[in-house]
Amino acid sequence: MTGIQRLGAFLRSPHHAWLTVLTLGIGLASANVPGMIAAGAAYALGWIFLPDSRWFRKWVQKRIDGAGKADFAATAERFAKERAEVHGQLSAEGKRAYDTLAKAVEKVRVGSGGSESPHAGRLGQLAWTYLRLLLTRETLSSFCAKESSDKIAGEIASATSEVTELEGRALAAQNRGDATGAGSLERLLQSKRSRIAGLERHLEHVLKAESDLALTHAEIERLFDSVRLIQADLVTRRDPDAMSAEIDRTTAHFHRTQDWLRDLEFDQTSSDVPDDHTAVVPLRIHE
For residues 187 and 196, what is the distance between their CA atoms, to the nearest angstrom? Predict the structure, then answer.
């Protein structure tokens, strides 16, 4: 805290209120000039020495620490609420999948030191990323169940064939001097071409969704298998270094996975949750 900030804190503190009462207040109450001069001097000396005093610094630091703890608790509570909301959006199968992984990760976290474990934050991140992937899979699966790239590609091929036929008819109409027929066919061609352009854009979205769905499946399987391996290391070898190395390997792709999830237009979940928050929030979700 800078000197100016400390003076501002002193101005807003109860210490300043008491300084004012005990100096200026008493000086005014004395109703004589020497008393008021002495009170003003005492007030000025208070401003000089009190903001830099050890006990006032300790009071300010205690207030800062208290505010920091309150902010941390509020942020952690918001994260816990958001996570419960995401869990609530999952199907029964999705909830079981998360609960199974959360149970396994919780055992690893407890076995490696609980919330004080140096791995607690990353293990919490792993569970949060897994939960987001499950929601992404269900969202994409629902979309891809309604849309088919093969069907859309077929519609494009059929519409393209129609355009080819219409182009031939329009050319024939022009060659025989049928301006009215040629104009009518040209307007129909514009409509058909516009539809093809729309279908092609639609196909791009569907193909991306199908690709994203395949990647989501792969990431879910990778994370689940990695947790099983970490759990096996903890049970069989109980080697902290080996477990730490496996956690490092598992979380090495976190940033890429989180960046990819962040880029999905429909994903509204928080992507940048600090490790100190994921470390303290319980992994299992009780509805």
Answer: 14
**Is there a contact between 210 and 144 (Cβ–Cβ < 8 Å)?**
yes
79, 277 contact by CB (below 8 A): yes
Residue 126: count other Cβ atoms within 10 Å of its Cβ. Answer: 26
Q: Residue 79: which residues within 8 A CB-CB, separation 6 or more?
A: 270, 273, 277, 278, 281
How many Å apart are CA 34 and CA 39, to the nearest integer?
A: 9
CB contact at 8 A, 106 and 284: yes
Checking if the pLDDT of 239 tops 80, the result is: no
pTM: 0.66
Work out whether the CA dihedral 27, 29, 30, 32 comes out positive or negative.
positive
pLDDT, average across residues 75-88 = 84
- Rounded CA-CA distance 91/112 in Å is 31
